[in-house]
Amino acid sequence: MPAIDIHGLTKSFGSIKAVDGLDLVVGEGLCLGLLGPNGAGKSTTMKMLTGQAIPDGGSLHVLGFELPREAKKAKARMGVVPQLDNLDIDVTVEENLAVFARLYRVQDVGAAVDRALGIARLTDRRKDAVDRLSGGMRRRLLLARGLIHDPKLLLLDEPTVGLDPQIRTELWTLIDNLRSGGTTILMSTHYIEEAERLADEVAVMAEGRVIARAKPSELIAEHVGVSSAEVYGPPERLAEVRAAAEEAGLRVRAAGPAIAIVGAEQAEPGLIPEDAVHRAASLEDVFVLMTGEDAE
């Protein structure tokens, strides 16, 4: 039985169709990254999985329970790390965790708190007030809170959004340890490197549906080939190089101050300028070509 089983899911807000016929199956023990630009439907999907939003249509099952009818039973067995920090700042770190352990009817609250603090590397800060924690520590506490009841499924909604690179890397290590330990994880993100480093498989979302799904290496091989060539120069030169490459049937995308000729290994000799920077094709190439959005 899959941990998540979604078919034909839809959700609209007025005239805006946030989720449009979404099909998504997540097997047990898998870490699946939902990768997409802002507005792709990732957060709305997460809200429907946690019962915060009611689907307009389609079917949605989590851990064998039908949502929204059996949402209470499903939520008791899943952990959620929200995008926004909603920690109680009036109590200590361990008190935050103890409250949620009791809400989930954990039998040994003290042991559960100790375990969650250990996973999040916050044992030495257990007596601290939450408002004295750094941003990175607060995100680790959110992760610990989501794990307090040893859930079968963990939902991570943009888990490192707004964090600086060093703190983001710390969170990645914690999440990777959970993934390696067999926890089923669904993680929404718009950070390319986050999806590439943590997810067993990546589902690329755009306009409310999944448009591609596979292991990161398989997505790269299928959609962009082996190598890309980045060309730098003034706009008129880039326009000229781009036109020649596209006329030859190659795909080209913007890459900051440059353009990237994707699948450069297929180019005829002399087509790619000698001063081009050659690199391996990447998941970023896939993302930009498939969604039309810049990567982060």
Helices, strands, pairings?
Blueprint: E1 4-13, E2 16-26, E3 31-35, H1 42-49, E4 57-62, E5 65-66, H2 71-75, E6 78-81, H3 93-103, H4 109-119, H5 135-146, E7 153-157, H6 165-180, E8 184-189, H7 192-198, E9 201-206, E10 209-214, H8 216-223, E11 227-232, H9 235-247, E12 251-255, E13 258-262, E14 277-280, H10 283-291
Parallel strand pairs: 3-8, 3-9, 6-7, 7-8
Antiparallel strand pairs: 1-2, 1-4, 4-5, 9-10, 11-13, 11-14, 12-13
Helix pairs in contact: 3-4, 4-5, 5-6
Question: Strand order, biggest sheet?
Answer: 6-7-8-3-9-10
- SSE succession: EEEHEEHEHHHEHEHEEHEHEEEH
Main pleated sheet: 6 strands, mixed
Whole-angstrom Rg:
22 Å
How many individual β-strands?
14
CATH topology of the largest domain: Rossmann fold
Number of domains: 2
Shape: globular
- From the coordinates shown, what is the CATH architecture of the largest domain? 3-Layer(aba) Sandwich
Report the portion of residues in β strands: 25-35%
Percent helix, as a range, is: 25-40%
**pLDDT average, as an integer?**
92
Model description:
There is one protein chain. The model has no long low-confidence stretch (mean pLDDT 92). The chain has two domains: 4-220, P-loop containing nucleotide triphosphate hydrolases (Rossmann fold), CATH 3.40.50.300; 226-280, Alpha-Beta Plaits, CATH 3.30.70. It has helices at residues 42-49, 71-75, 93-103, 109-119, 135-146, 165-180, 192-198, 216-223, 235-247, 283-291, and strands at 4-13, 16-26, 31-35, 57-62, 65-66, 78-81, 153-157, 184-189, 201-206, 209-214, 227-232, 251-255, 258-262, 277-280. With 296 residues, the chain is of the alpha/beta class. A six-stranded mixed β-sheet has the order 6-7-8-3-9-10, with helices on both faces. Strands 2-1-4-5 form a four-stranded antiparallel β-sheet. The protein has a four-stranded antiparallel β-sheet with strand order 12-13-11-14, with helices on both faces. Helix 3 (93-103) crosses helix 4 (109-119), helix 4 (109-119) crosses helix 5 (135-146) and helix 5 runs parallel beside helix 6 (165-180). The two termini are 34 Å apart. The protein has ten helices and 14 strands.
